[in-house]
Amino acid sequence: MIIGMCSRLSSLDVKRKETGRGKVRLRMGFREVERGLRANRIVLVVLAGNLERGEKIEEHVGKIVDEAGGRGVKVVRKWNARKVGKMVGKKVKVSVVGVENVEGAEGEWKKIKKILGE
């Protein structure tokens, strides 16, 4: 369900870039997601489960998990980086995705919130 929602939001984001109108729906990358969490815009974080071990990566993951927990944002850590990249329409590995705007996938978002217990 999360995969379907992220795929839908990704395709809508591509259309937004082509037309130049609308709001950003997804943020990818550690710094972008951290920035979105600090601005209180992220509603869901999808974090890859197979991240490489390293001091900086663990520092970023810790910041994201702490910030999300403090703001009541759910963190899903289930898929590997390749699968996370595919679900947002990328051909490369993506370590973290922040869902910022669910406009266009409200039905899936309601189901996901129900499953996650919100």
Automatic annotation (TrEMBL):
Pfam families: Ribosomal_L7Ae (PF01248). InterPro entries: Ribosomal_eL30-like_sf, Ribosomal_eL8/eL30/eS12/Gad45. Residues 25-104 form the Ribosomal protein eL8/eL30/eS12/Gadd45 domain. This is Ribosomal protein eL8/eL30/eS12/Gadd45 domain-containing protein. It comes from Triparma retinervis.
